[in-house]
Description:
Blueprint: H1 2-51, H2 59-73, E1 87-93, E2 102-106, E3 113-114, E4 117-123, E5 129-147, E6 150-157, E7 160-164, E8 191-192, E9 203-204
Antiparallel strand pairs: 1-2, 1-9, 2-4, 3-4, 4-5, 5-6, 5-8, 6-7
Amino acid sequence: MKKTFLIGLAMLSLYSCQKKETATDTGKGVDSTAIDLSVTTETDNDSAAGNNKTAPIDSKVVDMIRKQLTTVLLNKDLPAMTKEDRFFYYDAFDLNNDKKDEYFVGFSNPYFCGTGGCSGFILNNDGSLLNKFTVTDFPIFVGTTASEKFQDLIVSSKGILYSVKMKNGKYPSNPSVQEKWKGAVPDQSQAILDIDNKKLEKISF
């Protein structure tokens, strides 16, 4: 009788140990899954944040452009413009290889844009006007050749590409009356005022 009792007690102890081990293993599995999920979620969020980042802006350049638009370039237009009209985008590129950027200023609202494209400006590094442009689709591409020490431009108007070259210190303002560009845009040509792909910031003035 005593022997039977001892055997039963041993079997009960063995069953209790196995149950504890099973519960412990299950708990570890749950913790591991939770860690994996949290890492995946963080990575996904970081990726989404990276895709939504806007291009960096220079506050000094923005202030300079604002001043030129409101006091010189568009001062006569301001009374006719609505609040929604008073936004611009800008992009920088050194067109004449003097180690100083020129600034392309573009717009995307009905005051500046029509069926033929949009208007805008190219400013020198000091903010003075280098060029106006009209009936232009964005982006503008910088060509691989130069005229009068300034890079040639490849400009789209109504979906057609044109070759725009510096002549007598100015780029022609209307690309659609220039020579048509033949072939595709070169791979090494940089896109300027690529508003959507570069996620350029919309800036008020």
